[in-house]
Amino acid sequence: MNLTPREQNDVETELGLAVLPVEPSPGLKASIMAKIAVTPQLPREADAVPGRAESAAHARWFTRPVTILVAAAAAILLFAGGVFAGNAFAPRPLDTQAASLAELSAAGDLQRASAEVAGGGVATLIWSLDQRRSAVLIDGLSALPAGKTYQLWYLDAEGAATPAGTFEASATGTTWRVLDGAMSGGDTVGVTVEPDGGSPAPTTDPILAITSS
């Protein structure tokens, strides 16, 4: 049977509407947001012309078109945030974290620093002093035994530690967490292993410490 283009379009629309919507797992969105945050972008054309090489060489790893990042984040939040499943007005913790990571990654003053994690893994700290916000992304982080959790800390110039959230190692992909609280210039971001639920002050030596500028 031959269908006109309009009839074919109608059939395709009806078939699409007949499929029950499936909400992707929160882990999928988190994984995508982590990849966005650590994926370098090509330098702008203006930075690649002769005479601008030094500027291009000093361009930050995370410089990227803000509109592209925001559009990608919006699409992810719309698709994976439960809109099709009726949960648009009941965001889950991972939804909030993903939105925070997208906003942080788009900051005009975004900076980054990397360090190895004691026991294995490589961590990247990204931060914005304008937003007073930071996030840690770790590749190769080992899972902890039952009863233990990873805890983030802000350490100021005097060494005072402020709790900034707990997290578990991701079973797949990059482990990441946007820190709770406000960051100040020069703060050190640390990670320790603590009992479940976290501690009011570090009880072990840090497995990671990265100082911001």
UniProtKB/TrEMBL annotation:
For this protein, the record's Pfam families field holds: RskA_C
Q: Domain of life, per the record?
A: Bacteria
The Anti-sigma K factor RskA C-terminal domain covers 70-207
Keyword Protein biosynthesis part of the UniProt annotation: no
Its keywords, alphabetically, are: Membrane, Transmembrane, Transmembrane helix
Asked whether the keyword rRNA-binding is assigned, the reply is no
Give the transmembrane region(s). 68-90
Listed name of the protein: Anti-sigma factor
Q: Tell me which species this is from.
A: Leifsonella bigeumensis
Q: What is the lineage of its organism?
A: Bacteria, Bacillati, Actinomycetota, Actinomycetes, Micrococcales
